Known about the structure:
Blueprint: H1 3-23, H2 27-35, H3 41-62, H4 69-89, H5 95-115, H6 126-144, H7 149-158, H8 162-187, H9 194-217, H10 221-247
Amino acid sequence: MALSVYLVVGLGAAVAGFVQGLSGFAFGLVALSFWAWVIDPQLAAVLAVAGSLTGQIVAAVTVRRGFDRARLAPFVLGGLAGIPLGVLLLPQLNADWFKVVLGTLLVLWCPAMLLAKDLPRITMGGRLADAVVGLSGGLLGGLGGFTGTLPTLWCVLRGYERDVQRTIIQNFNLTMLAVTMLVYLGSGLVTRTALPMLAVVLPAMLIPVLLGTRVYVGLSETAFRRVVLGLLTVSGVTLLAAALPRVL
């Protein structure tokens, strides 16, 4: 591959690493806004999962926010059921339509939540609803490392405090991404062509992840919510910008 491709992949990994360290999620979404232009979707999915997993391990060590087993369990159990479905769908996936659907969801929903003075709080559904959201996270994780997107939105709608949300998303993502990477390895999706790219992605993201975790510690509840919703909105815009021209 051309040197310019490696430069774009490294830049995407660095920016995504900082965002993940700051917010606890979104590595795949941010990285793919760079990578979608230069590498194929299947390779991008492998790199996104590997980078996300590495970032979550670093964040788990540097930003410790406890472990609430009862609250986390429904998300994880649902996610474990969703991962195999996502991996099965990945080879048949129309990447452009997938980006359009996900990008549209983020662009419509997140700004509305960001502008609302009083966010609605969802209290119904209990653990079953949490498990369904976890299933969607696992499904998106199998498709390309997007494990935290919908669970993060759900935690915001639940009205969880900053550290509670970080606890759920960080531990959920760590579990889902580890399982997804094992499934990728077992199914042969991680090929030799991915190794040079992995050698670029992993070093490029490490320092930005650490910087992001430093910034997170100083954020207030309100600032953290705005950062999360703002990042999700920008991610949606970039997904649409990459996919809509090809779909239309």
